[in-house]
Amino acid sequence: GTGHLGVFGLGYADLTAGLAHKLDWQIAALLLVTKLVAIVACFGLGGCGGIFSPMLFLGGMCGICLAGLGNLAVPMSAPDQLALAVVGMSACLGAVVRAPVTGILIVFEMTHEFSLVPVLMIGALVSQTIGLKLMRHSFYEEILIQDGHILENVIPPRDLQGWQQLPVSAIANFHPIMVNDPAPARLMETIRSHPFQRFPVLQDGALAGIVTRKEAEAAAAEKRPPKLDKAVTCLPNTTIRELQSLLIESSSLMVIMVEQAGGKILGLVTLHDLLRAEAAYAKVGE
After folding, report:
1. At residue 223, what are phi and psi to the nearest 5 degrees?
2. Helix, strand, coil: what percent of the chain each, to 5?
3. How far is CA 39 from the centre of its chain?
């Protein structure tokens, strides 16, 4: 092995070594190729991971590699090689995310070299021009389009303040499917009868938590009680503004509407319910 683990993590250690001229360009080339393969495999297989750090890493390794190759033909000073590395970082991030100023600021914060700002700006400008020629949308926009979301078609409510002041009862589902018996057989019967991914669970008539379809199937296969996610509740007069915060707090992206604290369940609201209601509200306001 090379002793460099940037492919398997954020890569800050290898990137720092490269900026400090402690990384051979051949190793940088190897890390560039393997990191690119790892990123494609991770996103292609549905794995988790960000885009900022990988793009900085790829850009930096590309710059270091080009600096090493260029040094074979024309001797280059250490500042020149550093300039190529940081320009690569800024250009790569800017081209993919389409946020050139963000790329410049991030790289500047890593180096604290004012003298590099002009070349960073030039690199960002060139990368934006080439990026727009090759692909119309940024990485994040392409992901949304791939999932069927066209940003031009997303129309916010005309009266945002009025929308956020609406009560939860205006958009709640008053006929929720609930699991009244968490025993494996009854639980699987409910799960198989409905297509939903999450279900409120009652024990002795009281709300016990939320069970996911995946957890219910795993519990049934292992013949054990299911693990329940914490249920987040609200009252009917809770506003949409407050509901949005509760949905973020909820690990299940579901909020249970109750008559009163610890009282009878009246309905529920999911993130999809909120988005559908918001879209309908926007159309009414057109």
Report:
1. 55, 55
2. 60, 10, 30
3. 14
The distance from CA 185 to its chain's CA centroid, rounded to whole angstroms, is: 36
Radius of gyration of the chain, Cα coordinates, nearest whole angstrom: 26
Burial of 286 (C-beta count, 10 Å sphere; 0-12/13-18/19+):
exposed
- Strand, helix or coil for residue 189: helix
Q: State the pLDDT confidence band at 155, using cuts at 50, 70 and 90.
A: low
CA-nearest of 276, 277, 258 to 268 is 258
Cα gap 132→149, rounded to integer Å: 20
Annotate 77-142 with DSSP letters as a single string: -HHHHHHHHHHHHHHHHHHHH--HHHHHHHHHHHH--GGGHHHHHHHHHHHHHHHHHH-SS-HHHH
* Number of Cβ within a 10 Å radius of residue 180: 12
Tell me if the pTM is above 0.90: no
**Contact call for residues 167 and 236 (beta carbons, < 8 A):** yes
Tell me how far apart the terminal alpha carbons of the chain are, to the nearest angstrom: 61
At 217, list the tokens: 């199937």
Among 46-50, 177-181, 275-279, the range scoring the smallest mean pLDDT is 46-50
> In this predicted model, what pLDDT tens digit does every residue of 212-225 receive, in sequence order?
888 888 888 888 88
Q: CA-CA distance, 170 to 57, in Å (whole number)?
A: 48
What region does 227 belong to: left with phi over 0, alpha with psi -120 to 50, or beta? beta
> Across residues 32-38, what is the average pLDDT?
87
